[in-house]
Amino acid sequence: EPGLYLVATPIGNLEDITLRALRILRTCDRIACEDTRQTQKLLNHYAIQKPTVSYHLHNESTRTEELIAELKTGGRIAVVSDAGTPGIADPGGYLAQAAIAAGIQVFPIPGANAAINALIASGLSTETFTFHGFLPAKEGARKTALEALPRNATHILYEAPHRILGALDDIADVFGASQPVVVARELTKLHEEFLRGTAKEVQTTLAARAQVRGEIVLLFTLQPTQAEAPKLSIAAEVAALVKQES
Ligand code: SAM
């Protein structure tokens, strides 16, 4: 079928790609890539020969026009990012919006994503969760962003390895050194690692290393604040009383 196919690719382990994704990459007209060299490695691994075109932040608007024009003539274009699900903290979302606005069909092709896979193995509550992408790089703005996070939810962030120690410091400052956190590093790769503990403990563990490397997802669940907690328990008491009455 003609349309725009948002194809998820592996986040490390090259086996993490679906049969459907491979079929679409093999049969589409061309592949729009965040970085053509990066995607070429995947295509070579699966012996897929297909024209690629770069699609990233800096050429997004001109490229979008070209690709939409091609889609309008009945083309089948696959969009991939460097890793994982296109549009999640990387390019792809803009093209999907433009395609929808132009009346073109958009198909999600499911697969790897760092946030969701870090979450499911984190041991934290998966009931209510929010993904924030990358926090601001500067400490002041990062703390302000942390302070604004809603309680009663698990928060999922992407973090650069050279900023993880600073981010853990800020979490300890804003929510207390005993705030539980999970650092998921190098998911699906040889050195995959989950560090679970308080912000202080995980910070100390990582600070003891010569260098923190690799790709990182940072997660933590915020409990209701003390001001909100009594409200919640009053609501629960009222609910219990109402139940007794009926
Ligand atoms: N689109 C991707 C996805 O679906 O997860 C995310 C792209 S974003 C530009 C890259 C960031 O995702 C990294 O800096 C890291 O925070 C996270 N990430 C990607 N692969 C990862 C992995 N294998 N392990 C841990 N985090 C990863």
From TrEMBL:
Keywords: Cytoplasm, Methyltransferase, rRNA processing, S-adenosyl-L-methionine, Transferase
Pfam families according to UniProt: TP_methylase
Domain Tetrapyrrole methylase residue range list: 4-202
Catalytic activity field: cytidine(1402) in 16S rRNA + S-adenosyl-L-methionine = 2'-O-methylcytidine(1402) in 16S rRNA + S-adenosyl-L-homocysteine + H(+)
The protein's Enzyme Commission number: 2.1.1.198
Record InterPro entries: 4pyrrol_Mease (IPR000878), 4pyrrol_Methylase_sf (IPR035996), 4pyrrole_Mease_sub1 (IPR014777), 4pyrrole_Mease_sub2 (IPR014776), rRNA_ssu_MeTfrase_I (IPR008189)
Predominant subcellular localization, coarse grouping: cytoplasm
GO molecular function term, any single one: rRNA (cytosine-2'-O-)-methyltransferase activity
Superkingdom of source: Bacteria
Any one annotated GO CC term: cytoplasm
Compartments, as annotated in UniProt: Cytoplasm
Similarity remark: Belongs to the methyltransferase superfamily. RsmI family.
PANTHER family found in the cross-reference section: RIBOSOMAL RNA SMALL SUBUNIT METHYLTRANSFERASE I
Function: Catalyzes the 2'-O-methylation of the ribose of cytidine 1402 (C1402) in 16S rRNA.
Protein name, per record: Ribosomal RNA small subunit methyltransferase I
The encoding gene: rsmI
